[in-house]
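Two proteins were folded this term; both appear here.
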Amino acid sequence: MPNIETALKALGIELPDAPKPLGNFAPYLIDGTDLFISGQISIDPNGRVITGRLGEEVSIEQGQEAARCCAIGLLARAKGALRDLERIDRLVKLGAFVNAAPGFAAHPQVVNGASDLMVAALGAEKGTHVRFAVGSSSLPANAAVEIEAHFRIQA
C-alpha cells in the first residue's frame, strides 16, 4: 500500500500549514493512541473560507468540495500534530456539520466529499470510518461545512 503522502501527491494535494484555531480551544489532543482533531472549517487552497448555506447559495457539488477541503485541513492538522502521517493507524470517526437551509436533507451526500478523500488518501483499510453528518443553522465564519476527526495512531 502506498504511503499517505504519496497518495496525496497522486491526488494532486499539497497539505497547507495547519490553520490557527478561531477560539480558545486546543486544535488537537493526543491521548495515548487517540488523536482528536477539532473541527476544521471549509478553507479552499487559496486560504479563503468557502461560505454559504447548502440548499440556498451552495450546491451539493460545491458542498462536497467544501467537505473535501475540510478533510485536507484535518490531514494538515494531523501532520502538524504527528509530524509523520504514517503514524496514523486508522481514521475512526468523522463528525460533520453542514451549514444548511431549512428543509435541506442531503447532508450525507455533502460529507461524502470528505469521506471519499479520506479513503483515497489513507486507503480503504485505514480510511473507512464511522461518521455523523448533521445540518446546522450557521457555522463559524459562515463556513459551508465543518468537520472534526478521531484517528487511532501509533504511540
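Next, the second protein.
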Amino acid sequence: MALGHIGIARSIANRTSERSEEAIQCNRFYEQARDEVLTAFPWPFATEYAELGLVEETPNNDWTYAYRYPSDCVFARRLVTVAGRRDGNPPPFKVGQDSQGKLIYTDEADAVLEYTVAVTDEGRFDALFSKALSFLLGHYIAMPLSRVSGERERCYQYFQEAISQSKATSLNEGQQTEPLESEFVRARE
C-alpha cells in the first residue's frame, strides 16, 4: 500500500525476504513507522493494562515510587485509579530509567498502567491502523524511491488525516460514560 501511495506500481511479495530496492526501503523504515503509529493514538487492539512491578520506594525527592516500565510497552498512556475513567485527574507520572531499563515514577501506590503494547502481529492490526501505517511508511520511503515532488509531504498529510479519522471512529465504538454533573448543577436540583 505504501508503494502505491507514492506512485510505484511494483508490489512486494515478502517485505522481509525480498531483496528489491522497494523491499529494502520498506523493511528499513517499517518498524519505526509501525511504532510511531502505535504511539499516535490509543488503538483498541493495542491497549493493555498491567500492575506495575515496584522497583523502589522513595527513589528520589520528586516521587514516592519507582516501577518497572513494561517490556512490551511502546507508550505509557495513564495510571488507572480505583475510579477508573471517571477519574478526571489521573495521577501524574514520569518516565525515567535506571541501569536495568525504563522506569515509571509516580506517587501512586500499587500502580496500574494503561499502555500501548508493541503489536508485531500484523493480523491484529485494524483497517484504520493499516491505513495510517501505509501512509506513514509511504512518507518515509518517498525520499529514496519516488521521483515525484511532494509525495513525502502528501503522505504525511494523509497519515494525519487517518489518525483524525481513527479518533472520530473510536468515539462511536463502545459505550461512553455520562459526564458527571458538577457540584453546582446538583445543588440547583
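The two ends are 56 Å apart (CA to CA). The chain has five helices and seven strands. These notes refer to the second protein only.
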